[in-house]
Task: inverse folding
């Protein structure tokens, strides 16, 4: 089979992956804190390998989508008027602590809420647990700033944010990394750092209350890229058809 057939087949499959990325960006154009993905392509390894009786066989052809990086550029700031909505002006992320797993993830989506939490009541100096009339630990209700999915927002000391006044601005922390390239995308618009991102540190961005950061997806740009991917997909399929017709012609000549 002519190598052009496989080159075109690989190209069509990779353009389908590119379309998936663009479709996800468009679907999240109105998602607060969303950061658009950027598909990056690279040439496949190509050359010849030794086959049976030292026959030279072609290996690898075409291109593939090597990665889908994230564009962390800032989006527009929208005023919401909600006391516990926050937007980061500048660089950085909000930190989210999951008490069930101990995992800390990061997000730019600052649409937070208050979550009720039960804990043992301690003396004023925090040294002892207070007991009730039955000698059992006395429980108290506290409110934590949460992402609404069971994770607590970290404050500017790296601890969970306890809320005493639901209308007041909370000391929400901003965290950042030396390199944000290659952070792993998680569910609910969150990111997890990898080894290449370095150690977490306090960020330089400032927090604005009563606002949220809009998606940085450029709808016009994404629609243009969708059209490009569709055209490239159709050209690759045409190349597959042409290669198949050439093979059929050669086989007919041999017969």
Result:
């Amino acid at each position: 089979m002519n190598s052009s057939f496989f080159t075109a087949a690989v190209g069509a499959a990779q353009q389908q992956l590119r379309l998936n990325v663009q479709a996800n960006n468009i679907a999240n154009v109105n998602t607060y804190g969303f950061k658009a993905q950027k598909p990056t392509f690279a040439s496949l390894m190509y050359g010849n390998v030794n086959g049976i009786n030292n026959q030279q066989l072609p290996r690898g052809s075409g291109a593939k989508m090597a990665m889908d990086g994230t564009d962390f550029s800032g989006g527009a700031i929208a005023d919401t008027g909600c006391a516990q909505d926050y937007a980061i002006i500048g660089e950085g992320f909000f930190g989210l602590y999951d008490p069930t797993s101990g995992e800390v993830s990061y997000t730019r989506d600052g649409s937070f809420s208050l979550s009720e939490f039960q804990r043992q009541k301690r003396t004023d100096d925090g040294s002892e647990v207070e007991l009730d009339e039955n000698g059992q630990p006395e429980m108290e209700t506290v409110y934590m700033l949460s992402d609404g999915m069971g994770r607590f927002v970290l404050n500017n000391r790296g601890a969970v944010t306890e809320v005493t006044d639901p209308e007041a601005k909370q000391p929400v922390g901003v965290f950042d990394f030396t390199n944000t390239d290659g952070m792993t995308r998680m569910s609910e618009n969150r990111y997890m750092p990898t080894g290449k991102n370095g150690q977490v540190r306090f960020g330089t961005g400032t927090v604005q209350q009563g606002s949220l950061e809009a998606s940085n997806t450029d709808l016009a740009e994404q629609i243009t890229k969708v059209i490009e991917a569709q055209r490239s997909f159709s050209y690759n399929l045409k190349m597959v058809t042409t290669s198949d017709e050439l093979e059929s012609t050669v086989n007919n000549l041999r017969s």
Summary: The two ends are 17 Å apart (CA to CA). Residues 219-254 form the longest helix (36 residues). The chain has two domains: 3-72+218-254, 78-213. The chain has a mean pLDDT of 87.
